[in-house]
Amino acid sequence: MKKLSFIDATLRDGSHAIKHQLTVSNIENYCIEMDSVGMDTIVVGHGNGLGASSLQVGLSLLSDYEMIHTARKYLERTKLGVYMIPGFGTIHDDLEPAINAGIDVVKIGCHCTEADTTRQHIEFARNADKEVYGVLMMYHMASINKLLEEVQKMESYGAKGVILMDSAGASTMEMVKKTVATLSENVNIEIGFHPHNNLGLAVANAYTAIQEGATIIDGTVKGFGAGAGNCQLEALIAVLEKNGYATNVDLYKLLDVNDNIMPQISNCIGGLDSLSIVSGMSGVFSAFKIPVLKAAKQFDVDPRDIFNELGRRKAVGGQEDMIIEIAEQLSNPLGSNEDDLTYQIGSLL
Amino acid sequence: MNKIKVGIIGTGNIGTDILLKLKRSENLECGMFAGRNPDSEGIKLAKRLGINTSTKSIQAIIDNPDCCDIVFDATSASIHKEHAPILKELKKYTIDLTPARVGKMCVPVINMEECLSEDNVNLITCGGQATVPIAYAINQVHPDTKYIEIAASISSKSAGAGTRNNIDEFTQTTRDALQEFTSVEKSKAIIILNSANPPVNMRNTVYALIDHPNMDEIKKNVNEMVHKIQKYVPGYHLLYEPVFENGRVSTAIEVIGLGDYLPKYSGNLDIITCAAIEIAQAYAKKLIYQRRD
């Protein structure tokens, strides 16, 4: 299976949700926590990319340079990326200064039918030895044949891959399946997908894209983003783990960012809370959440471990009594006799 | 009256639109229509019109220097940078319609007179021709304007290969022109290609940040500017007069084309080709006057 990579757009696309008002400490705290999570790339900058801070689409609190400079200090294991739409930013004013500030990855985007407006910028970033991706926005507005042509243009300019943006969240899984399958079969570069959750399908669409050969997913923590939000990376990673896909992402650490860092950025973020994801991933009844949290507190254990153990033991609705038992054992692993217990529980089911 | 001959290099959308507009001119005629692509629609059209054509691009003018006194360069920024010194050597008055910015930037309604004594003038971009005069008019009323921003949206169909290949120079040159022609120290230009079908008209919004805007004076000055531009670009008009909203002054302009080469939605061609013809006609009058002496 081809290696999957993840681009985290929380500090870029996500900031639409707070009108581009990310602070220096938001970026610092986020990058400090995220650097060890195992994301491939974290992208920063105005929500519409470098150079887009404007009266037209919204002024950002920090300049692109301040964001890049701040993130750069704290990202050692994770690559630092930028996004730019030609027509908003220029090489001289935006892209070249970003490259000089030490970014690693460049994404150049355009409306899905206008790939030829990205040639100059893709070539410029390639010549600067950066990892470069093309981005086709609002991909649902073009036919698959047209998309193929546009992807091939970006391939010819030197893009390492092309990411389709479902900017309006208008995709059904059938659309994703057909589009990504056709593109993956017909081009040699990587195909990526950037879903939005308008129809509640962002994670499903990302997963479908992966099944059809996409190798890059571009999403955000907690689905942070404009309107219905983006593809919630934690939920996607959970789905992938559940289905046996190997990723380099440490899910627990990623969930910690959901719990600890995202509330600092905004208290009105939509998306799923971290325990809902673990509950879904482990296949445990959602109503277990409150008793799990209580037990976790009482026994000073991680509620996520309780959920995972409940799932492993195939707890069914009404078996809330297992929670305390598991919490107690987790708090005292040496004292438990897990084999006997598993046998007992198994025999009860 | 004798007509002054012009050469056009570049047979894409802009070059071909100029060729068709020349038919209306009293003092200009096309002596050479040169490009590189023998299959371009522009070349085919020019041949049908009986125009002298070539696929040797600038070489056609080097080989036959008497074919014109004025050259319109409608190729691309990088190509114009190569053409500029050759045309200077050949002593051709050069009107550059690419965002190469080799010569002095010209917006006819602002600085045409002083541009007639240059050897190479640059027409910025279509977005620049449409918005710089409005920024200038606002800045005349308010030299204290802190920031100017423009957003120009054009239909994908009207943006030819040159525009697409030069989208970066296009954006940068438009932004730089806003500062060149005003006293505003910070500016931004946004260019959007809209692929909607049927194609959208060229639309430009100008924003300004001014602490205490005198809206009556701004409206008056902007309206006067619009009337002056309408003399050479008939389809140029305000979509809404300057208003003060959300702490900013904004106004929007639509440009409807004459429909000479591309349909009327392509006002972005007209705003720059009409400016080019306006300058060429003024230069031609000057030449005719000099030659009479």
From TrEMBL, chain A:
User: Which catalytic reaction applies to this protein?
Assistant: (S)-4-hydroxy-2-oxopentanoate = acetaldehyde + pyruvate; (S)-4-hydroxy-2-oxohexanoate = propanal + pyruvate
Q: Name one GO biological process term.
A: L-leucine biosynthetic process
In which residues is substrate bound?
Answer: 12-13, 167, 194
What Enzyme Commission number(s) apply to this enzyme? 4.1.3.39
Q: Which Gene3D superfamilies match?
A: 1.10.8.60, Aldolase class I
Q: Give the annotated active site.
A: 16 (proton acceptor)
Residue ranges occupied by any Pyruvate carboxyltransferase domain in the UniProt entry: 4-255
Enzyme class at the top of the EC tree: lyase
Binding annotation for Mn(2+): 13, 194, 196
Q: Which GO terms describe its molecular function?
A: 2-isopropylmalate synthase activity; 4-hydroxy-2-oxovalerate aldolase activity; manganese ion binding
Q: What's this protein's family per the entry?
A: Belongs to the 4-hydroxy-2-oxovalerate aldolase family.
What is the organism field in this record? Answer: Lachnotalea glycerini
This chain belongs to which protein, by name?
Answer: 4-hydroxy-2-oxovalerate aldolase
Give UniProt keywords alphabetically: Aromatic hydrocarbons catabolism, Lyase, Manganese, Metal-binding
HAMAP family the record matches = HOA
From TrEMBL, chain B:
* Sequence similarity: Belongs to the acetaldehyde dehydrogenase family.
The identity of this protein, by name, is: Acetaldehyde dehydrogenase
Gene3D superfamilies reported for this sequence: Dihydrodipicolinate Reductase, domain 2 (3.30.360.10), NAD(P)-binding Rossmann-like Domain (3.40.50.720)
Q: Which segments constitute the Semialdehyde dehydrogenase NAD-binding domain?
A: 5-118
Q: Which keywords does UniProt give here?
A: Aromatic hydrocarbons catabolism, NAD, Oxidoreductase
GO molecular function annotations of the record:
acetaldehyde dehydrogenase (acetylating) activity; NAD binding
User: Main EC class of this protein?
Assistant: oxidoreductase
Entry-linked InterPro entries: Acetaldehyde_dehydrogenase, Acetylaldehyde_DH_C, NAD(P)-bd_dom_sf, Semialdehyde_DH_NAD-bd
| Catalyzed reaction equations | acetaldehyde + NAD(+) + CoA = acetyl-CoA + NADH + H(+)
Matching Pfam families: AcetDehyd-dimer, Semialdhyde_dh
Q: Does the keyword NAD apply?
A: yes
Active site, renumbered: 126
Where does this protein hold NAD(+)? 11-14, 268
Its taxonomic placement starts with: Bacteria, Bacillati, Bacillota, Clostridia, Lachnospirales
Q: EC number(s) per UniProt? A: 1.2.1.10
Keyword Transport tagged = no
